[in-house]
Structure formats: C-alpha cells, structure tokens
C-alpha cells in the first residue's frame, strides 16, 4: 500500500454485494518460470554452479533480512474483497499473506491469536463459511467472496456475549485465555452441525485446539453447558 487506509475506512456499505465485488477482483497468477538453458559443456556447468553458490552465499551474508524485505516488496499487491463478520471489507493483500496476518494487522481484529503460526495449536481458528480453519495456514487471496467469522463476529447486536462465550465464563474455562478464542470458534462450529454433541464428540471437535494451561476439562464442560442451555 502506498498510503495507509485505516481499517474502518475499508468497510463498504451494508448493502454492498460482496460476492459480485469479489468476482471483479484481479486474480493473481504467478509468473512463468524463466526458460532453462543447458550449459554448453561440463566446464561451463561447473563454473555456473560455483558462481551461483558464491552469489547466493554473498547475498545472504551481506543482505540478510533485507533480502526477505526486498522479496516482499517485489511481490504483487492486490486489493480483494472478503466478507468479515458480516461486513464487506476491501483489503490489500500480498500473494503470500495469511488470513491471520490480514485479520490482525490490516483489519485490527486481534481477537484471533497467533500461537505456532504453523497449523499446530489452533489458537488462530476462525470460521470460513461456518467451517473452522487455521487462519495462520490459509492464504487470504484464496478467500475472495468467502464469509469469514472471527471471535469479534460472535458479539450480539447490543454487545452481549455469545451463549458459548457465556458458558465458557460460567465454567471458568479460560485460564491465561490465549487459546480461548480458538476454542470458542471450534465449539461454535461444532454446535452449528451437531447441536447436542456427546462429550466425546465435543472432545474430538476441540482436539485441534491446544491449551498450554491444560484447561481441557473446563472447556469441555463449557461446550456441554452451551449445548444443554441452547
Ligand atoms: S497459530 Fe495457527 S494453528 Fe497455531
Ligand atoms: S487457557 Fe491458557 S492456553 Fe488455554
């Protein structure tokens, strides 16, 4: 982005047709790889290997982190349309940008946590078309026209907590709270498809959400309470 646009300035009108807008977004396709030419003979091949090795190590030594920055700067920027928590959002995303980064650092939705950043802990769980996904392992540009729900999107019209959040509070489930948004999103997704789960079904649904505080039984109690009271 040449110019910073605050997140709230990128919310389109409520009646904006986000699917139609998304259909007009440019689709980035990677450039074709350069044609490979075979070296003329063995001597030139060896010289080429030595030269490229020297160049790579020299670049990584002298430029270090700057080379990564330069790569990012060279990557194309794209303006895409996604529906986040019922609002149509236009965001500039890099080709390699994950949804977690877009949500947290471009849209200001910091309720989605980043733990491992490699699809292992579940802290970054959000719903995409009502199905739980690891946002740290989902590329934003793959979400044109899709519906994303984050923990902020569970808030009621008057700011009240979602019934699942209330159940979590009543069961004293959050300890440090870092894994809690991800646990809640997985639990909400479960009750959408299975409103009366058994405890084992709930355990399975939340098995991708790690809790370093070990509050697993509290979380299960909360899910069962929310299912009972729904
Ligand atoms: S931060 Fe995404 S799974 Fe851990
Ligand atoms: S409550 Fe601390 S990580 Fe789960």
Structural commentary:
The chain is α+β, with helices and mostly antiparallel strands and 230 residues long. Helices cover 39% and strands 12% of the residues. It has eight helices and five strands. It has helices at 18-24, 42-63, 65-74, 99-106, 163-170, 180-193, 199-205, 216-229; strands spanning 77-84, 87-94, 125-128, 131-134, 147-149. It has a five-stranded mixed sheet, with helices on both faces. β1 (77-84) and β2 form a beta hairpin. α5 crosses α8 (216-229). The chain starts with 17 loop residues before the first helix and ends with a helix. Residues 59-63 have low confidence and may be disordered. Residues 114-117, 119-124, 134, 136 line the site of one FE2/S2 (inorganic) cluster. One FE2/S2 (inorganic) cluster binds next to loops.
Could you give a quick summary of the protein structure above?
The chain has 230 residues and is of the alpha+beta class.
Supply the key terms.
single chain, 230 residues, Ubiquitin-like (UB roll), globular, alpha+beta, binds FE2/S2 (inorganic) cluster, five-stranded mixed β-sheet, DNA polymerase, domain 1
Ordered list of secondary-structure elements with their pairings:
Blueprint: H1 18-24, H2 42-63, H3 65-74, E1 77-84, E2 87-94, H4 99-106, E3 125-128, E4 131-134, E5 147-149, H5 163-170, H6 180-193, H7 199-205, H8 216-229
Parallel strand pairs: 1-5
Antiparallel strand pairs: 1-2, 3-4, 3-5
